[in-house]
Amino acid sequence: MAYDPSDLPDVSGLTVGIIGGTGDQGRGLAYRFARAGQPVLIGSRSAERAAQSAAEIAALPGVPAGGVTGTDNDEVARRSDVVIIAVPWDGHAATVAALAEPLAGKIVVDCVNPLGFDKQGPYALPVPEGSAVQQAAALLPDSRVCAAFNHVSAPLLADPEIDRIDLDVLICTEQRELVDVVAALAARIPGMRGVYAGRLRNAHQIEAFTANLIAINRRYKTHAGVRVTDL
């Protein structure tokens, strides 16, 4: 079955919440979705920090008035249809566990990469559950969880001069019906495609591959992504 974006559902009315929306990856995704006209809520442990970050994003080129607002994580989880987890790995488990109740029944997209850094460069960290998204799934038994947006460059997302980001978003989930929703969200960003990449057990190598991309980017001074050929 060839990739056909015309089959994707209309997700333009879904509110996207971003937990960790004050960090580089979260801010970048918030900007791109808001710029595409998607209602966006930015979450943080501090409602004031979230509101400040939202105001800064709202001032960027292409963002419609009222397109992005910020508040605390709990409120974002309750008010959003789709929630993206974009927090640092060292705070991942605690943040996700604290939101189990408001995230019940919600689509949760985890884009966290468990990485370490030393003098030799980035490397993947072991995760007892297997991967960050599997940890999230274990902590959110009543949510609909998937992994996606792991390989999107934060500097590209944040650069208002860049109109297209040509890469594929690899999606791992146990619930195949989530694939089209997340792929449709990815397609809201010009140049992106969402591609099903297997069940959650396949997510660990996707998260770990981010270390390779960082090494590539440092060596060649670029912002490399992933594109699946012959699709």
From TrEMBL:
Keyword tags: Oxidoreductase
Entry-linked InterPro entries: NAD(P)-bd_dom_sf, NpdG, P5C_Rdtase_cat_N, STEAP_metalloreductase
Any one of the GO BP annotations: copper ion import
GO CC term (a single one): plasma membrane
Keyword Transmembrane helix: no
Domain of life: Bacteria
Domain Pyrroline-5-carboxylate reductase catalytic N-terminal: 15-114
Gene3D superfamilies reported for this sequence: NAD(P)-binding Rossmann-like Domain
GO MF annotations, alphabetized: coenzyme F420 binding; cupric reductase (NADH) activity; ferric-chelate reductase (NADPH) activity; NADP binding; oxidoreductase activity, acting on NAD(P)H
A Pfam entry, by short name: F420_oxidored
Name of protein: NADPH-dependent F420 reductase
Lineage: Bacteria, Bacillati, Actinomycetota, Actinomycetes, Micromonosporales
Encoding gene, per UniProt annotation: npdG
